[in-house]
Amino acid sequence: MTSTHWGAYRVTVENDRIMDVQPFEDDPLPSSIGYSIPEAVHHRCRVTRPMIRSDWLKNGPGDAGGRRGLDAYVPVEWDRALDLLSGELRRVRDEHGNQAIFGGSYGWASAGRFHHAQSQVHRFLNCLGGYTYSVNSYSTAAAQVIVPHVLGVNFLDMMWNNTTSWPVIAENTELLIMFGGIGTKNSQVSMGGVTRHDTGRWLERCHAQGVDFVNVSPLMTDSLEQVDAEWLPVKPNTDVAFMLGLAYVLETEDLTDQSYLESHCHGFERFRPYLLGESDGIPKTPEWAEKICGIAAARTFALARKMAKSRCLICVSWSLQRGDHGEQPYWMATTLAAMLGQIGLLGGGVGFGYGAIGGIGNPVKRLSGMELPQGSNAVKRYIPVARISDMLLHPGDPFDFDGNRLTYPDIKLVYWCGGNPFHHHQDLNRLRKAWQKPDTIVVHEPWWTATAKHADIVLPAATPWERNDIGRAGSDAYLIAMHQMVSPVGESKTDYEMFSGLAERLGFLDTFTEGRDESDWLEHLYNRFRQQLGEHDLTLPSFDEFWASDYIKLPIEGPEHSVLPFASFREDPESHPLKTPSGRVQIFSDTIDSFGYQDCPGHPTWIEPTEWLGSADVKRYPLHLISPQPATRLHSQLDCGQTSREAKVRGREVAVVNPADAAARNIVNNDIIRLFNDRGSCLAAAQVSEDVMPGVVALPTGAWFDPGDDGHLERPLERHGNPNSLTLDKGTSSLGQGSSANTALVEMERFDAELPPIVAHEPPPTVAA
Fold first, then answer.
1. Against a cut of 0.90, is the pTM above it?
2. What is the dihedral of CA 362, 368, 373, 375, to 10 degrees?
3. Residue 455 near residue 443, CB atoms below 8 Å
4. 384 and 424 both lie in a single domain
5. Interval 419-435: pLDDT, tens
6. Domain boundary residue among 503, 527, 553?
7. 478 an active-site residue?
8. CA-based, 20 to 30 A from 283: which of 427, 520, 624, 765?
9. Catalytic member of 9, 56, 73, 108
C-alpha cells in the first residue's frame, strides 16, 4: 500500500521492480495518474549517481555564462559530491552571508509526511543559519494576499476550514455560479495526498437535489458533464467586467440587500460611484461588460435577477487569480456575494477553489499535525514565490509587495529540493537567462528534469516508493503506512540521508537529526500525532500496530463535520467581527488604498490586462493561451510515465483549438502546430473541439521543457508542448505579485517541417572526470 498526491494504490513488486499498481479499493473514482508509477520509477531518465556539471567541476563556482543547460555531467562518488557541496555552502555563507542562499522548493515531491522535500531542505538550511525564502505559491499567490484584506482570514485556512461543505450545498444551494468552473480533473490531486476522490460524486448529488449550475469559463470542460451546467463562454481575464455588469443590475434594479451592506460591510458607498459610473463616467452596465467579456447583456440581466431570487453560491477557481490583476476577481466575487446579502447563509455566499484540488468542501474534521519541524529562519529576506527570475536578474532592485517596499537579494547559491521551476515558472527563456547568474545551483532530483539539466550539482533522490513514510492528508480520514516497495535505483539516497551527510560535514548533525534515523522519526511523528488526537477524544493504535497494517481510517468524516462559513459573523457582527480593520467585509479597503498602487486601487476594479483579446496586440497575436492543469499527471510529475505518454500525439502535448480558429489556419485534428509570440515558441498537437471558445487555445502545463539541440539560442523552439515557453512573467499587481500565467497572447500555425526529436526524457551526456 502506498499514498500519493493523486491517490492510494496497492503495488505489485517482482524482483525488486514495481510491476503494477491498482487503486485503493475504497476510492470511488481513482485517478489514472498512478498507472505511470511502474514505468517512471525504472525509467532511463532516472538520476542514478551524484553528478557535477563539467564546467563547474573544472572552473569552480561562478556565473555560468550560458553553459547551464548545455554542458555534460561528470559522475562522482558520494563522498566527493558531499565534500564539494558542503565546501560551497560554507564558502557562500562565510563570504556573502546566509541571505545569499535561496532555499527553493515546492511541497509536492511526496505525500509522505517525513520525506517532505520542502520541510527537509528548509530544516537543513535553518540549521545552517538561514536562507532567503519565498512566500505564497504559484497556485494561489494573489488570493493569499487579497483574501485577508477583504475577509480577514488566511486564504488557505478559509479554503480548507471555512468553506461551505458539499452536504450544505446539496441541501440548500439553488444556484451555483462557477467562475472558472469546477474541474474534476484537478481534484485528482491534493496537498498531502487524497485517498478518496469524491468531488465528482458530490457534484452529481448536488445536481440531483436541484442545484442549478452556471459555468463561466473559456472551457466547456471546466464543468462536469453530468451536472448539465449552462456554459457562459467568457474571454480570459475579463470575469471582473462580467461581475461588474451583474452588480450593476443588482444595484440599479433595487436587488441588493442594503441592510446587510450597512451592517456587515465596509465601504460600499465608496465602490458604488465607480459601479454606476459617477466617478469615472463609465457605468458598468451589462452592455459595457459585453463589449469586454463577450457575454450577451441580456444573459447578464437574466442571471443577476436569478441570483437575487435564489440561494446563490458564487465559486471562484484558482485559475482566475493566476492572471494579470488576479486579485480583482476574488475581491469582486466577494462584493457580489455581499450585495446579495448571502455571506453566512446556508448554501450561499462565496467560495474559493472547489475542484482546484481534492478535498475542498468535504465534510471532514480537519486535523493538523505530523509535520517535520523546520526550525526558525534567522534570515528575514524573502520574495514572492513567482518573482524568482526578477530576483536573479536584478539583485538590489526595489519592488513592492503588499504595502512593503523590499529589495531583491543578491543570490549566490540556489538549493532546490523537490520541485521543477522549469515547469511551473513563466517565460522559461527568461528563466534560463536568470538561471545562469548564481555561482552554484544544487538540485535533489530522481529524474533528469529540465531543472536538473540546468543545475551544477545534481544529487540522485529516492522516490516515495524507495523509502518508508506515513501518508496523512488533512482532507480525508486515512492514515497510510507507506512501506518501501523497492530498493533505491542506482545510488539514490533519501533527502534526509543527503542532508545528514552534509550536516555532519558542516558540524550540526545532531541538531539536524536529533539523533533519529528514518524509522525513529516516523515513530516520533506518529506518536506526536497520536497524542494530539487524544485531545480530540480520538485514539490511535501503537505505532507498531499501525506499521503492521496498511492503513487506519479515522472517524472524522460525515455530514456532522460540515462547515457553514461566517455564520456567527452573520448572526452578530459586533460579537463575532471579521479580522479586518473594520471587522466587516471590506468592499473598500482603506489599507490597500493607502498603498497608492495604480494596479490595485482601494476597491474592486476592472483593469485591462497587459495582454488580452481586447488589446492592440491581437493584430499580431490573435489567440489567448490558457494553461490549465493536466488530466494525466500532477503538474510535471510522472511525465515520462504511461498515462502522460499515451495521451500525447506524436510525443507532443495536446492543445485544444476551436474549429473556427483551426479552419482559418488550415489545421485539422492531430496536426502538429507551432504556437509562438515574442517570448518563445513551442510545438503541440491540435485537438479541434467546440469545448474551447473561439479565440482561445488551451495547452495544459507539465510537458517537460525541451529546447533540444537549440538550448544555446535565446528563444529556441520548445519541442514538447510546454506552455510556459510562451507565458508572461509578470506579477499580478504590486499587491500580490502572483503568477500571471493565464495572461498570454499567441499565434498558431501548422508545423509542416520535419519534426525534431524529443529528448526531454533522455539523460544528458556524461564525461569522465
1. yes
2. 100
3. yes
4. yes
5. 899 999 999 999 999 99
6. 553
7. no
8. 624
9. 108
